[in-house]
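input
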Amino acid sequence: MELQTWPKDVGIVAMEVYFPSQYVDQKELESFDGVSAGKYTIGLGQDKMGFCSDVEDINSLCLTVVQRLMEKYEISYIDIGRLEVGTETILDKSKSVKTVLMQLFEDSGNTSIEGIDTTNACYGGTSALFNAVNWVESSYWDGRYALVVAGDIAVYATGNARCTGGAGAVAMLVGANASLIMDRGCRATHMQHVYDFYKPNLDSEYPVVDGKLSIQCYLHALDKCYNIFSKKLQSAGIKDGTSLLDCADAFIFHSPFCKLVQKSVARIMLNDYLSSSSTDTSSRYNGLETFKDVKLEESYFNKELETACMTASKDIYLQKTKLSLLLANQVGNMYTPSVYGGLISFLISCPVEELSGCRCVLFSYGSGLASSMYSLRVTDDLSPKSSIHQLIRNLSDVRTRLNHRKKLSPPEFDQLMKLRETTHHKAPYKPIGSIDDLYPGTWYLIHIDDKHRRKYERKPLHSSRDINNDKIISQNKGDVVS
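output
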């Protein structure tokens, strides 16, 4: 397809996020786990962690976030031409989450929808987004929207990694004349074979984790993407000088824990410094002079270098990244939605008037490993009825939802984690967790039969119109009961 025939300003038109209605306080968890005070809250930068009981699974999370997006933006199900789910939370080795979501489309009669599940640790949502953008810009596009869903439940076995869990889902509508426009041609990817985090035991939700190696792989992938991405921005005329940090208004990262994001900003500054000319005397690099000859591959755990870079980059971190950590700090690591939770956090933390033309650089990482860095730009159209105003309005309830969650004690959290562990893939099974505190409009699991077929029900919304639309649905095609 020739350039002039491509749809204009392709990117993210609309967004919605779902996270659990219950959480555990990380400071209380420190005491319960018997670790030093501040290990989770200061050392990792985490405040609260959202989690699911046995009444929620990846299907219910995705059902909830998709229906919330469709209702908030008043989108017709017939207007979706592609639907792709990025997740590493696997309930079935064959049946995709996407096929479960198709039951939401049955009343519309729309079954002509491309896409399927995409899986690789925390990177699946980004791959799904790229596929959606590629479809809209291809000769196969039929003018309809693409719908991308990133969702996961991150749980760990008892031990020092459990505090880095979380759960949630983000839905993104992709199309032309977008609120958040993808910078065409500005995408860098690094893929590599490594066992830093993986899930070989299909009978368990828990991963096998090499924590130190995983951090090294994350930073190594960031270095590689930085190098490729910088060249792409230069070719596009976006990057003029040597500093990537000067090319955007926000830098948003996949967040296993918040402190790693701060270290990532410092890592980009180190790359900027090492890429700068020997005559660059910018004051921003004060304190880095003794590291001019450092080799990146030997610097991942150089504490002296890390401290110097974090000190030098502190102001940039506060200006361009910290606002993106709201959901990461309050919910935890959502896996595939993590970087998009960061994007939402940034958008709702800025006055909409200041967002016009704002460029955001995003870094997505999934263990094993897969990584990409790319950029998008907020539309310049700030008219009251513009898509960006609608997007911000529809995300305005995020802080309210965070503040109205129920806090459970660490022993209650531990008990629910043991319940998930002992009932994982159990069939037949009827969940015993409470639905009282679920947000209105949340889908939840009500039964698994002896053939592992799952049935769900939606908690009513406040309006009679939405209550009348409540359904019980199952994984069986055609099994929809009003």
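quick obs: The first strand starts at residue 11 and ends at 18.
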